[in-house]
Amino acid sequence: MIAILYKTIGPWWRLGGMTLFERNLRYLDTVNVESAVIIYPKGEIIPALDIPRPLDLYFRLREIEFSGDDPLRILPEIALENNRELFLFNANLLLDIRVLETLGNQMPPCFMYESSEDEISSWRMGLVRAKDMTVNINTLKGIARLSLDDVSFYAPELRGEATPFCTLIESKQGLVSGWKVLIQKAQKRQGDLIEKYVHPKIQNWIVRKICNTPVTPNQISLFAIIFAVIAAILFYQGNLFFAYFLAFSATLLDGVDGKLARTKLMTSKVGELEHIFDYFYENSWYLALAANMAQTHDSVAWIVGLSITTCDTCDKIVSALFKKVKGKTLDEMGGFDRIFRLIGGRRSIYLHILLMSFIINLPFSGMIATLVWAGITVVIHTGRAAYHLLYH
Questions:
Q1: Residue 177: CB partners within 8 Å, gap ≥ 6?
Q2: Which domains does the chain have, with CATH numbers?
Q3: Digit-coded pLDDT (tens) for 52-64
């Protein structure tokens, strides 16, 4: 399959650390489009690619006088093999890859609209063959059409649902709206109250500030690990408030690197292994705090710390096995599971239980409370997993 990206007179809009032109090329590369023809007005300069990662997709450039009122008019000017399928869309289209995949599964000719109520001429993407090049605005009425309602809302990389989008960016105001769409698409399904109501605004601000810089997601991940390790050392030394601050910062950056990677299309195998690092440094906090409490309060703190890590490990094993068997996370199975996800035992919840205990100067009691909630969480998750496996 090939693609034709056309560009009308005006800017090559940039959004999320690259031009929309480059973003669309990388999406096409992801769905194994072999080559692309870039059609643009005479005299304009093609922008350079921003992301230092090669494209397997080959593209060639064509300067054509083009008004933009009917993009289908440019098709007859391009010599292509008669039966080859091709995507046709504006280079300044802010595109969801799920839209591309959905349209690619149809029989050409077929056109994608934002809404089923849109006028026939308001299509956003087309899937045609070279032999369909006589298609124009006047003949679109009898041709198959899809809308965003026909696109799956489930986004595998987010492990949850996200509204699909296919929006043409034509102005600076459009860029503002486009950023909101893009950052929402980069937002993974939140795990708890802290991740849902506190983290996103801070993370989105950071991502927007660094999106147009050379900073990479892996560099952010490295900072998160450094902060987490220093936090463990400080927990051991008894510098509890500074330790909490760095641990909280590590959890915050743990979301920033993923958002930045999805926004700049820089996801990697290293990022997929990130949860392994998360597991070890999270549990190092509880063990380091236990070591400190064993010296300053009661030697039983070691048992408490080890019990917290045991509960956390058991909970992760239950969740991982359930997902492997059912193909979806336990949190997605029902209303109770979605609600409990907001308050269930996780690192952000544990950190804030501990913070409350630091404030009232009862850190050992905070460890006990953390253990109790970790135990309740693993019992509830194990029970719910058994219920869903038996009855669903």
A1: 167
A2: 2-172 (3.90.550.10), 189-391 (1.20.120.1760)
A3: 788 888 888 887 7
